[in-house]
Specification:
Distance between the termini: 36 Å
Number of helices: 2
Order of helices and strands: EHEEEEEH
Structural class: alpha+beta
Radius of gyration: 15 Å
Number of strands: 6
Strand order of the largest sheet: 1-6-5-4-3-2
Strand content: over 45%
């Protein structure tokens, strides 16, 4: 069984692609509390606390927005709850404008600490939930 893996899913959204990017780190970053402490910055380190599967978790992450590719990258750093299960974890939101609908592709890339640990599906679910709340 492989320790490294990748999960992907897509969420159709009503919001415009640029609107979602601005929600993460631009003009509307205040709509997602504590998502980007350096409002307007395209890269920062941030810490936040959230509830996932009825448990409080914390994450320290590198937050990066690639305006050109219309992507948001969240890379877990030391001290993050997810790193108790995984050696590494990165969530990427790719935004696409399509005819009739806009789509956010969510990618979770990870390396588990051992084979007994299941894939971190709860972080994919969290990413999907976050996009639906922003939308």
């Amino acid at each position: 069984m492989a320790l490294s893996g990748k999960m992907e899913d897509q969420v159709e959204v009503k919001s415009q692609v640029d609107e979602i990017l601005h929600t993460f780190g631009g003009k509307k970053a205040h709509l997602v509390p504590n998502t980007c402490p350096d409002k307007g910055s395209h890269e920062s380190i941030q810490e936040w606390t959230y509830v996932i599967e009825r448990k409080v978790e914390t994450i320290k992450e590198k937050f990066y927005i690639d305006q050109e590719k219309k992507e948001v990258h969240l890379t877990a750093l030391e001290g993050s709850t997810v790193l108790k299960l995984c050696k590494s974890c990165k969530i990427i939101f790719q935004l696409f404008a399509r005819e009739g609908a806009n789509v956010v592709k969510i990618i979770v890339e990870y390396e588990k600490r051992n084979e007994d640990i299941p894939p971190p599906q709860k972080y994919m679910n969290f990413g999907e939930s976050l996009i639906k709340q922003i939308n």
